[in-house]
Amino acid sequence: MKTKKWITYTIYGILITLLFLYLRFPSDSVANYIKSTIAAGNPDVVLSFDSATPCIPPGINLSNVEIGFRNKPDLILRTDTLKIRPALARLLSGKLSLLMNTDAYGGKLRTNIDFANRFSTEGPVNMNNGFSNINLGKCSCLQAATGRRISGILSGTLSYTGRLDRITNGAGSAKFSLLDGSMQLLREIFGLGELDFDKMDGDITLKNRTLKITSLEMTGKQFSGSFSGNIFLRENIMRSRLSIKGNIKIHAMNRDISTTLNGTIANPVPRFM
Question: Looking at residue 20, what is its pLDDT?
Answer without folding.
Answer: 46
